[in-house]
């Protein structure tokens, strides 16, 4: 765990100006004549920009001048609007901001420079106004550094143009991506890099001062940053936006969800298409069962440990650590863009988001926790917080809800993410022990409810899933065992059928409005 330290840090907001230098002019000294062209282009841009936004704000900007200004996110390119079905109309209407608001936000900035950010983004042709905290605050205090080759966002994340990674200056015991059988019992500390000065390089005359709020890996990354002059010291180039991240607890669905969510929001802020956002793992964890989810959601996966020559990244982001995600702040009143995140996550897995609740035929999903080997430091795969009476729970719930209810239990971690989402996206009542699997609360239909169960030994201070349900406004109930006799060997908890009956009825009456 990384200690959080938010003291002693201040940013001075730098307001973004229109008409910044185009992408190709990042070496102003060497290309003096470029400046004139730049001013001309900037002026034309401003004129087009103003003209465009005086009229009706266009949803799509294919081929007109605004496309350049607003970044190159042509929503149509990856739109799956045909997948939007009747059930989603409500959702869609909620997302469309009125034109005045859209103008106001898009009107501020955003063009094809990394030293900028979007105030409106499109996901599946639906505009999202990026005006929610904490991200709006991070974006608004953006600082442009090193001749606009670096942008620092409130000490939480950053982006660079033409950054070079020199793999010879990063050392780790492992390369990452190994099979678990090859690395039994390796220390967690073997799964991170030590970076020497020059691992990251950007075009600059003086190394920019970059303060990061949290004492996390970004401080180490910033320390390793050096300048290069003239030509980038490599001939290998990656053009697509690449988000560099360092993962902790990479096989835990809850923690990985905070990473997915952070990456999703940065994708919106930087205006990148999902398939054009590569993910660079700057860690050396072995293969994990959630790795492939990254490439389903975003572009290519690159492991820093597998680079063997310096590489130039046209656009490189430094992502936010999962622990500092708003998703991990359980006392927050709200977490922005969660419905959009759900839509994105399910749609990227080709899973429908249009389930309709039928109170005569509710779908109940029990998540089973069972012993399961997921990483090299738990060879026995022993898992706590298991149920002692799975069969009895299914039978009781069927009795409670009647024969037409569809009551099922799954050990989700044995299934592919797509198969997990297929059941979760149709689930009306989700039941599970406190544990990462309940992160699926984020993907339930907006008409569902959640029942969380906790053994006696589980602290009541853990609010991860209650918070997720609250943010999504889903009915939620918690049953916390108080009888020692219900706790059995091997961390199995007996759930008394009468208690379950009462809890399931409670959730049912909340989602079906019968209570
Ligand atoms: C979703 O469908 C597309 C198009 O058929 C396919 O290329 C992609 O692999 C599918 N994704 C998943 C996760 O099944």
TrEMBL record:
EC annotation from Swiss-Prot or TrEMBL: 2.4.1.255
Transmembrane domains' residue ranges: 36-53
Pfam families: Glyco_transf_61
Keywords carried by this UniProt record: Endoplasmic reticulum, Glycoprotein, Glycosyltransferase, Membrane, Signal, Transferase, Transmembrane, Transmembrane helix
Domain named Glycosyltransferase 61 catalytic: residues: 254-451
Coiled-coil regions listed: none
EC class: transferase
Annotated InterPro entries: Glyco_transf_61_cat, Glycosyltransferase_61
UniProt name for this protein: EGF domain-specific O-linked N-acetylglucosamine transferase
Organism encoding this protein: Aplysia californica
Catalytic activity: L-threonyl-[protein] + UDP-N-acetyl-alpha-D-glucosamine = 3-O-(N-acetyl-beta-D-glucosaminyl)-L-threonyl-[protein] + UDP + H(+); L-seryl-[protein] + UDP-N-acetyl-alpha-D-glucosamine = 3-O-(N-acetyl-beta-D-glucosaminyl)-L-seryl-[protein] + UDP + H(+)
């Amino acid at each position: 765990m990384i200690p959080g330290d938010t003291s002693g840090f201040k940013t001075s907001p730098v307001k973004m100006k229109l008409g910044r230098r185009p992408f190709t002019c990042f070496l102003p000294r060497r290309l003096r004549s470029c400046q004139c062209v730049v001013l001309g282009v900037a002026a034309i841009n401003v004129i087009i920009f103003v003209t465009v936004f005086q009229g009706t704000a266009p949803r799509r900007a294919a081929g007109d001048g605004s496309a350049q200004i607003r970044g190159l996110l042509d929503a149509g390119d990856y739109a799956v609007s045909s997948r939007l079905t009747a059930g989603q109309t409500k959702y869609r209407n909620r997302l469309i901001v009125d034109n005045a608001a859209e103008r106001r936000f898009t009107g501020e900035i955003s063009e094809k420079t990394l030293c900028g950010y979007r105030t409106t983004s499109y996901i599946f042709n639906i505009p999202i106004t990026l005006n929610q905290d904490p991200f709006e605050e991070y974006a608004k205090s953006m600082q442009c550094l090193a001749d606009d080759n670096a942008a620092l966002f409130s000490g939480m994340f950053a982006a660079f143009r033409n950054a070079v990674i020199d793999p010879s200056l990063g050392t780790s015991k492992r390369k990452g991506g190994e099979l678990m059988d090859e690395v039994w019992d390796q220390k967690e500390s073997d799964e991170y890099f030590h970076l020497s000065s020059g691992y990251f390089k950007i075009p600059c005359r003086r190394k920019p001062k970059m303060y990061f709020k949290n004492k996390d890996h970004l401080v180490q990354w910033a320390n390793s940053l050096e300048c290069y002059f003239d030509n980038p010291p490599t001939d290998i180039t990656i053009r697509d936006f690449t988000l560099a991240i360092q993962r902790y607890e990479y096989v835990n669905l809850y923690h990985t969800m905070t990473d997915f969510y952070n990456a999703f929001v940065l994708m919106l802020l930087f205006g990148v298409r999902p398939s054009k956002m590569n993910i660079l793992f700057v860690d050396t964890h072995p293969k994990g069962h959630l790795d492939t989810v990254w490439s389903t959601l975003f572009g290519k996966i690159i492991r820093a440990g597998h680079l063997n020559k310096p590489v130039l990244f046209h656009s490189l982001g430094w992502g936010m650590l999962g622990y500092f995600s708003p998703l991990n702040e359980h006392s927050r009143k709200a977490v922005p863009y969660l419905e959009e995140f759900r839509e994105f996550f399910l749609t990227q897995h080709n899973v429908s988001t249009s389930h309709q609740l039928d109170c005569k035929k509710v779908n109940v999903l029990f998540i089973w926790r069972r012993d399961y080997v997921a990483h090299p430091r738990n060879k026995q795969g022993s898992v706590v917080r298991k149920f002692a009476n799975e069969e009895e729970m299914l039978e009781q719930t069927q009795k409670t809800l009647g024969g037409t209810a569809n009551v099922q239990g799954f050990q989700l971690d044995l299934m592919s993410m797509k198969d997990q989402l297929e059941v979760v996206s149709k689930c009306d009542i989700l039941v599970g022990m406190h544990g990462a699997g309940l992160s699926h609360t984020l993907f339930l239909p907006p008409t569902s409810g959640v029942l969380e169960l906790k053994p006696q030994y589980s602290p009541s201070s853990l609010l991860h899933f209650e918070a997720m349900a609250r943010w999504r406004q889903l009915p939620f109930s918690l049953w916390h065992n108080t009888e020692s006799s219900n706790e059995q060997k091997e961390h199995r908890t007996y759930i008394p059928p009468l208690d379950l009956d009462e809890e399931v009825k409670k959730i049912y009456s909340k989602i079906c409005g019968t209570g």
